[in-house]
Amino acid sequence: MALRRYERLAYRWFGKRSEVAVERNPRLRVTLQKAHIYLRPEAYVAAATLTSLLTVLGTLLPVLLLSILIATGQLEVPFRLLLLLLPIPPVAGAMMYLLAMVLPDVRAATRARDINAKLPYALNYLATMAAAGATPEQIFASLAKQPIYGAVAHEAAWITRDVDLLGMDIVTALGRAVDRSSSEKMQDMLQGAITALTSGGDLKTYFANKAEQYLYDNRQDQKRFLDGLGVLAESFVTVVVAAPLFLIVILSVMTSLGGSVRHTVLVGYTLVLVVLPLAQAGFVVAIRAMTPEA
Predict the structure, then answer these.
(1) Is residue 211 in a domain?
(2) Do residue 148 and residue 77 come from a single domain?
(3) Closest by alpha carbon to 217, among 163, 293, 281?
(4) 252-272, pLDDT tens digit by residue?
């Protein structure tokens, strides 16, 4: 895939260092393939480096402007606040770089969840095609044209591309798909299909048995998800509903007994504007990560 102008510029500036970083992290190449990010690892690392530097510059300018205003006496800000603002640019740049390095794993995991959720139904389709006497090449080519199967159809499209455009035989194309897929279930299914093809086995029976196996696995995953969701709901009520109310009552009592009103208001604002939104966002992320179906 051709690089965009931004990526070409990043590779021109940071290509040498990116090659060294990729040599230290050979797993990145495989992760990019599984995430279907169509960039060479060197170009990806270079783009991540440039983005991190731009993030540092973007956060450094407001800090410098604030420092100038304070130095010229146009703005009065506590010195402690200025000290807290100084580490923001390098921290923001480091977080952006780490986010870029983690992004392929996140996308690969998302694809794996989508594949695992739709694979049993795609296998029933494959079994039907095999029962109709279609060849393996025709089976996967037909699956690639069914967008209802999501990432499974996308994986089948890559297999068809290897066969039709690159001239590979179906066994070699399936082997490449095993290395490329982010789903262990998809890898297991494709490896079994290779064994069935090379040993003269019946693909219809194989696909039907795999569909039944993965449907059972999906039902078990859904059951575990519902059990975990019940525990998470109880935790949500305790942490996000009951605990803040209890804390507000305690703060009110302490204020009525002579406590500092200023500190009470500060704690209340922190609780309402910071703690509760972060807690709710944490539960949303946890539920999203637990959900078996993407």
Answers:
(1) yes
(2) no
(3) 293
(4) 777 777 766 777 777 777 887
